[in-house]
Amino acid sequence: MRQALLLLTALICAGCTREKAGSASAAANTSDSGSELEAPRLIPAIQNQLNLMASGVQPTDPENLTAYRNLAGDVVNSMAADLQRAGLADSGDFRALRDSVMDDLGGGPATESELDRSKLNEHIARMRRLISMYQQAMRSAGDRQ
Prior knowledge:
This protein is an all-alpha fold. About 60% of the residues lie in helices and about 0% in strands.
């Protein structure tokens, strides 16, 4: 219970903060619709979780993994929606990496969260690569304005 409370507090704090101005993930608008991007407000929370898991501080028990998987799913879906709103075509690389990231966590929302501890570092690297790919694409979209 204490771990779930800690996770919830981290998520709320991350949702209330913003990254430094000028970074692609802190951009407020897409170039075509003027609607607010979804992923930038979630990225700090997922990065925090990745850092905790990488350092071994965040336990990878089923309860924490379920919370992490839900957050990861929200981030991944938000990044995909932002890219689509920005009119950025997916060459297939983003979709393939997105699918790998979610497959690492055991599939869809109805399944129990699993993450092979021996593959934890691979998952963390994939998720970080996916975030970087998103941020780079959004930066390039901003440069085209």
